[in-house]
Amino acid sequence: MLAVSFILSLLLNFAPPASFEASWTQLRHSPLLTEDLQSSGTIVLREPSYLRWEVKEPVQSVTEFGADDSTRSRFRMPTEKDFKVTEEGEGTIVLEPLRRDLRQMFRRITVTLDPASGKVQSVFLEGTDDGWTRIEFKDVK
What we know:
The protein is mostly beta strands. It has helices spanning 2-14, 100-103, and strands spanning 19-29, 37-46, 50-57, 61-65, 83-87, 92-97, 106-113, 120-127, 132-138. Helices cover 12% and strands 48% of the residues.
């Protein structure tokens, strides 16, 4: 979840306005599981450091950062310095983490943008354990 918020906030830093709202569906594959996990929910991301990630299915939960002024409730917006950013064809951006802590979470992130609007359609995170996560966004605002 935080990895996705990093990616979205990085994209928002490149292309203001710095806000993002959408519904999402996620498919998580792990070599440790017998079948893939599916979930869905909504996300709200606002600059400078507000994130609300709501899971509606299979189990309801809400994670919120930046709702108050406490240091504990904030997350750090990433910058382009955190990733090697390349473009692979029209509407496909590949992010390779440069920081060690990010490289321990994932190898590579592929972001697909809608060619007409430039809005994020999906994020594909390749994990370090041969697992992966695909998140599709709908109703992007």
